[in-house]
Amino acid sequence: MNSFLKYLPALLLYFTLSGGLWHLGFWATFKINYLEFINVADVFKSTIFPFLDNVWPFISFILPIAVWGITIIFHDNSKEKKHAKVVTYPVLILLMMLFSLVISIFSGIYFTSEQQWRILPISLAFFIGTILFAIDFLKSHIYNEISRYFILVGFAMFPCLNFGISKLEALDIKNMTKYDKVINVNSSDSSLIKNLENTAFLGTTSEYLFFYDSLNVIIVKSENIKSFSINHVVK
Fold it and tell me: What percent of the chain has pLDDT over 70?
């Protein structure tokens, strides 16, 4: 229990970073400073909700690697801790860093925006994971070099994927190819109803609602809208 509490601040920072990167990728696409519109209650929601929405990379990729690595960690701790041989791979590290960097640059030059945000997060995760491996991060806890490398890449992958996924979602809305269409707006302001009908719903905070009309972002106080419905559109 004490060992878990020791790592709790690092885990909270990790998930906060992952949630923050999601918001950075999404709202920056629309040139909105999301921090201007959130309060204390929204800080928690802005961290946990993106994680829950995009937890599939964690479950499908990172968690199996982590479980595999943990089993080897226990094996190392029980049988090989005193005689663990730390093997360094300077050439492999250099090649992986160069490969990840080249792929990142190549995707930025030759690929479309959608392709970039599918490839770039993965290549950056390998780049970051390789750097962490090279500086012997977690070496005192994970004695198996292969396990440590893939665990580091895996945990670097989740924040990077969060950013990439948010960019893809924002681009779908901006291009009006996949979005939540606003219908049946109920408000005492008739001009507001006219402006919001058939727009794309972006999101909400405790005090504000965000919409997109294919050109501009419309920000409305929550108290000015009684209710509205959304219809998911895919083109």
Answer: 63
